[in-house]
Amino acid sequence: MAEPSQKQSGISRRTIVKGAAWAAPAVAMAASAPLAAASDACTPTTSFDGLTVGSSPSSIKFLPGDVTASLSYTSTGQNNDPTPGNTGKVARTNTSPAWNYLEVQMVSPLGKGDSVTVTITLSEPVEGLSLLIHDLDSNSTGGWSNTQWLWQDTVVVNTSGFTYQKGDSITGTGTSTDPFKNTELGDQPIDSGKNKVRLTWSGFVDKVQITYIAGQKGSSASQHIGIGDISYDACVVSVSSAKTRSVNPSRTAIPAAEEATKFDTSATNDN
Questions:
Q1: 126-151: per-residue pLDDT in tens?
Q2: How many Cα atoms within 13 Å fall on the side-chain side of residue 163?
Q3: pLDDT tens readout for residues 240-270
Q4: Is the dihedral of CA 180, 182, 188, 193 positive or negative?
Q5: Does the pLDDT of residue 239 top 50, yes or no?
Q6: Do 46 and 231 form a contact (C-beta atoms < 8 A)?
Q7: Would 229 disulfide with which of 37, 132, 136, 205, CB 3.0-4.6 Å?
Q8: In 3-state terms, what secondary structure has residue 260?
Q9: Whole-angstrom Cα distance, residue 242 to residue 59?
């Protein structure tokens, strides 16, 4: 799928479809997701497809179950705006099938080191928390040796104890000294499987924090990534207690586009 070679505002290089903002932030309710019939009681999942495109939710509910994820944002640079551009808004791809996610964006003028930090706070500790970061890209006007960068997406994971699965073009380990970034120049389609990272915390966590950083000074008017497909394992067998938790046997499905894409690298990062 061809896309513009430079990030721009409005209809962006991410092929996002945006709508009018929701009247007020709200917890997501059950939705008729495209694959809702594909149930798995062990994996409560946030219902992104139940959120209105263009809305800015302050929390999202995991279905099934009662756990919620509260969302907050801070930034450096970006005129002291904690949610620059469309940060925190629900966006939707035009892939087939389409699916929703939260956008994290920085706007021009960009300085190297400008950042947006996303904090996801859970209403109770969970095991096996997993989320997807997608659309990490890099581009310049004249290749890697050119100092005029259009953008360079980099991501640091501030919460230790995670493992990762990286798309074919992603390098790094997610630390401040070795952030995740794309090794190929150009804007890659969301469904290419190249420009994404799956993060998983196998132990108990009640808060995770991710920082999106401008890797270079650039002229992009719309540098952004997406975060979505957040789930956790509700049927972990505890070694100490040998007990298995169970939940209501229904589940919001993970979009097929996320399950079908290829990952080529796995590792553990304890920061």
A1: 999 999 999 988 877 666 565 566 67
A2: 11
A3: 333 334 333 333 333 333 333 333 334 555 5
A4: negative
A5: no
A6: yes
A7: 132
A8: helix
A9: 32
Q: Considering only CA atoms, which of 95, 110, 117, 259 is closest in space to residue 190?
A: 95
CA 157 to chain centroid, in Å, comes to: 12
Q: How many residues does the chain have?
A: 271
Provide the token pair at 51: 């959120």
Whole-structure pTM value? 0.72
pLDDT at 269: 58
| CA-to-CA separations, 17 to 90, 91, 136, in angstroms, rounded | 10, 6, 18
Token output for 39: 């149930």
Q: How far apart are CA 204 and CA 267, in angstroms?
A: 19
Of the pLDDT bands very low, low, confident and very high (cuts 50, 70, 90), residue 23 is very low
Q: Nearest to residue 254, comparing CAs of 37, 53, 56?
A: 37
Burial class, 142, CB count within 10 angstroms (exposed 0-12 / middle 13-18 / buried 19+)? exposed
DSSP 242: -
Q: What residue segments make up the domains of the chain, in order of their start?
A: 16-269
Alpha helices in the chain (DSSP H): 256-260
Please tell me the distance from the alpha carbon of residue 8 to that of residue 222, in angstroms, as a whole number: 5
pLDDT at 261: 36
Q: Which two tokens stand for residue 148?
A: 């005029």
Residue with tokens 């080191």: 113
151 with 223: CB under 8 angstroms?
A: yes
Among 51, 65, 50, CA closest to 22: 51
First vs last Cα of the chain: how many Å apart?
Answer: 36
Nearest residue to 61 (alpha-carbon basis) of 40, 39, 37, 45:
45
